[in-house]
Write a structure and sequence with these properties.
Distance between the termini: 71 Å
Number of strands: 21
Shape: rod-shaped
Strand content: 35-45%
Helix content: under 10%
Radius of gyration: 31 Å
Order of helices and strands: EEEEEEEEEEEEEEEEEEEEE
Structural class: mainly beta
Largest sheet: 5 strands, mixed
Strand order of the largest sheet: 1-7-6-3-4
């Protein structure tokens, strides 16, 4: 018994020599009229298996029960949660073959009534995407989620006391900016919220 991410193979044995084993897979009490055990059982979906052993001259065994949960793997996002400067493309995948993925973009819990994932999603605004994977006969996957934000900042400042022909400033070792007069300046390349910046004089 337990939770699994793929189909399993089950064998049943009994310590009483010559005993016949009968079982059910729908949670009902097994009897001599139930399915006789003749070899390994493929557990391909979530189910409760119950078994009993019967031998002539013996009282029937107690019933043993095991619940097997076959759960769809949790979906994976190609794009880590975080803050971005520009539009991004997000793909969602799942390790369980044949599973359908459903998602939401408003932070609500997804279900089979949510958006069906059919291809890459464009993420260009602050939103929380949650996804779930579903496959017939399996227990639905756990929900996975990621929050995306877009809060870039410009880096700038003020130059004073400038003489001569001017100077060239850099931010983070690049994005050269020529300044020819005193006053405000702003670099063209934006910096992510919380991102590092370092303004230096190149020449």
């Amino acid at each position: 018994p337990g939770s699994y991410s793929s189909p399993q193979t089950l064998t049943i044995s009994d310590a009483t020599t010559g005993a016949a084993i009968y079982y059910t897979t729908n949670g009902t009490m097994p009897t001599a009229a139930s399915t006789p055990y003749a070899g390994t059982i493929a557990v391909n979906s979530t189910e409760t298996l119950e078994a009993i052993a019967i031998a002539n001259g013996y009282s029937n065994s107690l019933v043993t029960t095991a619940t097997f949960t076959i759960q769809v793997a949790t979906p994976s996002f190609s794009l880590p949660a975080g803050n971005y400067l520009s539009s991004q493309s997000l793909t969602i995948s799942d390790a369980t073959s044949g599973a359908a993925i459903y998602y939401t973009t408003d932070g609500s819990t997804p279900s089979t009534a949510s958006n069906l994932y059919t291809g890459a999603i464009t993420v260009n605004a602050a939103e929380t995407i949650e996804a779930i994977a579903v496959l017939s006969g399996y227990t639905n996957s756990f929900v996975t989620s990621a929050a995306y934000t877009f809060n870039p900042y410009s880096v700038g400042g003020t130059v004073s006391g400038l003489t001569g022909t001017g100077l060239v400033l850099q931010n983070n070792g690049g994005n050269n900016l020529s300044v020819s007069a005193n006053g405000n300046f702003t670099f063209s390349v934006l910096v992510a919220n919380g991102g590092a910046y370092s303004v230096t004089v190149l020449t």
